[in-house]
Design goal:
The protein contains seven helices and five strands; from the N terminus they run E-H-E-H-E-H-E-H-H-E-H-H. The protein has a five-stranded parallel sheet, sandwiched between helices. Helix 6 packs across helix 7. The longest helix is centred in the middle third of the chain and has 16 residues. It is globular and about 55 Å long. The structure holds zinc ion (ZN). Zinc ion (ZN) binds next to helix 7.
């Protein structure tokens, strides 16, 4: 059976990606990161989703990005904005996807996996540079130059099935595939129980997606 490493943040997008990898016949190995983000609820969600969606193995990698800071998610002195910002918002975490995908790449090589699945999206998103198709294409090229499997003729694909989908389309696709969105946590500053703030960018995109899909939003909000 073909194998894939799936980056799983515990949010709506990556949960949908995991379901898509399964539907495409991959044996999934999920990877999540305890990187000093504002809450651990998304890590709990990742474990539940891995189980519910039949991942073979789930790994949590510890890598403390608060040592670098530079983001509202990794420096508690920077507030998470509650309204839309011009340009790339302060919730951007410097080089995060490159760090995460590099570790996923190492694991993929060990597993002899054919693909890494990542839930980046360049439609209903915050303009993060490491979510764009040109970034993904460059990373894939680098991955096949950087690894033994790449140079020995076993190229790795970076699969981004959500890249050009709206949040509405993502939710509809996941719903067809049986994703339980009540397990997912999208909010940047969810509480210990995974309840969302309802005001950050991530909450706004999610809320809008469910409204446009005409579906009941299972998100639990903080009182
Ligand atoms: Zn929020």
């Amino acid at each position: 059976m073909k194998r894939a490493v799936v980056l799983l943040s515990g949010g709506l997008d990556s949960a949908t990606v995991l379901a898509i990898a399964k539907a495409q016949g991959y044996e999934s190995y999920t990877i999540s990161f305890d990187y000093g983000q504002r809450h651990r609820a998304e890590l709990h969600a990742s474990a539940l989703l891995s189980e519910q969606l039949g991942a073979v193995s789930h790994k949590v990698i510890n890598i403390d990005l608060t040592a670098i800071g530079g983001s509202a998610l990794t420096d508690t002195n920077i507030d998470v904005p509650h309204e839309e910002q011009a340009g790339i918002p302060v919730t951007y975490v410097p080089a995060r996807n490159t760090v995460f995908m590099s570790i996923a790449l190492g694991w993929a090589e060990v597993l002899e996996a054919e693909a890494i699945f990542v839930g980046v999206n360049a439609v209903d998103y915050s303009g993060y540079p490491d979510c764009r198709p040109e970034y993904i294409a460059a990373f894939e090229k680098m991955a096949n130059l950087a690894t033994r499997s790449g140079v020995e003729g076993h190229p790795l694909k970076i699969e981004t099935p959500l890249i050009d989908l709206s949040k509405q389309a993502i939710i509809e696709r996941g719903n067809e595939l049986g994703v339980d969105y009540s397990l997912t946590v999208s909010c940047y500053e969810a509480d210990d129980q995974g309840r969302a703030c309802g005001q950050c960018d991530s909450c706004r995109f999610r809320k809008q997606g469910f409204a446009q899909a005409g579906m009941t939003d299972p998100t639990r909000y903080q009182p």
